[in-house]
Amino acid sequence: VQLQASGGGLAQAGGSLRLSCAASGRGLSFYAMGWFRQAPGKEREFLALVRYSPSSTDYADSVKGRFTISRDNAKNTVYLQMNSLKSEDTAVYYCAARGPGTSDFPFWGQGTQVTVSS
User: Fold this and answer.
1) The pLDDT of residue 54
2) For 81, which of 13, 68, 87, 88 could close a Cys bridge (C-beta 3.0–4.6 Å)?
3) Buried/exposed code over 98-109 (b: 16+ C-beta within 10 A; e: otherwise)
4) Average pLDDT of 97-104?
5) Cα Rg of the chain (Å, integer)
6) 26 has a pLDDT exceeding 80
């Protein structure tokens, strides 16, 4: 499984960005997909997860109500819609994938930088 994240950039506080994660490989529709981020000097932080069937979701409290994860299995793409951005959302954002019935994420994208200016 290979993952390619894109869509990062510069946004103003209160603005929005949408990240995409294009996946390639077999059986991707059965994989749970997640988004994480890592800010300078901080540990990697889980943000959101979307399961394969049904497409139920989980969110970290820090982004609940502001970020929305979704997936398009036909396009093998996962999205992270980020609204009401804050300066503390500045980080490198990573998408990740895990197989059915597993808890670890063995597959990671390369990361995309999000910078929010206040």
Assistant:
1) 74
2) 68
3) beeeeeebebbb
4) 88
5) 13
6) no
